[in-house]
Specification:
alpha/beta; 7-stranded mixed sheet; 9 helices; 27% strand; globular
């Protein structure tokens, strides 16, 4: 199994996952044309996608989902809350995720995880194939016991470290937006991400990708300074960016 990113940040998110029997996208926050171009950069085409998984309805995650699905007849998985929160038009193959029940896509097991975020029925995902576990965990404002339990013993993880609390507090965002981002239903800070890594079992972690880093309220250097003490045992730590995401990372 391997994975890569088309881009990660407030201007668009999408993660590409590939395994022996297929490939899928988690979210598509870019226009149809831009998605096609970003897939090409990773030597992949939309026709190769077996599914699109949607985490929630915010535009930086769902912007291109409907257009991509319609153009290439791709099945789309999302919760009922996410589907009813927006008028996506007709989708060629909508598959609703009820009660966060696991499902399979071409032999890949997908485990939806409920997270605290200011969306209608958000989900993050743990993907399993051939004994390997890839955890995708962004867009949540706090770490619940349920989240900690679901992300134990992953072989790779894409983890949000969205903001530095001081940069957020003294930055240019209006007070209401600062409260939203830093609140329990917003986004994880560098410190919250570090605390999460301290509390879970990371002995199997081959790859950690630090993602959804705010361009206004964080820097890769600040995130790295906070996370470095708790990632010494991780074989490879990668910092995703908005424009290029990150290149293929392979699990063995």
């Amino acid at each position: 199994m391997r994975f890569a990113s088309l881009g990660s940040g407030s201007r668009g998110n999408s993660t590409l996952v590939e395994w022996a029997a297929g490939a899928l996208l988690i979210d598509c926050g870019f226009s149809l044309k831009e998605t096609e171009q970003r897939l090409l950069r990773l030597s992949r085409r939309p026709e190769q996608l077996a599914a699109i998984l949607v985490t929630h309805e915010h535009s930086d995650h769902i912007k291109g989902v409907a257009a991509l699905a319609r153009r290439y007849q791709i099945p789309v998985y999302m919760t009922p809350g996410t589907f009813h929160s927006r008028n996506l038009g007709e989708l060629p193959d909508l598959r609703l995720i009820h009660a966060y029940t696991p499902f399979e896509v071409n032999g890949l097991t997908v485990r939806p995880v409920a997270v605290p975020h200011d969306a209608r029925e958000p989900a993050q995902f743990v993907l399993e194939f051939a004994g390997l576990r890839l955890g995708i965990l962004t867009d949540l404002g706090s770490i619940t016991p349920h989240v900690e339990a679901c992300y134990q013993s992953c072989d790779a993880m894409v983890l949000e470290a969205n903001h530095d609390p001081a940069m957020l507090a003294y930055g240019s965002y209006p007070p209401s937006l600062k409260q939203r981002v830093g609140g329990q239903w917003g986004h994880l800070s560098n410190q919250q991400a570090a605390g999460f890594l301290q509390r879970i079992d990371t002995q199997r972690l081959q790859h950690l990708v630090v993602a959804h880093i705010s361009q206004q309220n964080n820097t890769p250097a600040l995130a790295q300074a906070t996370l470095a003490p708790v990632t010494t045992q991780v074989k490879q730590v990668t910092y995703a960016c908005q424009n290029e995401g990150f290149d293929w990372l392979t699990l063995t």
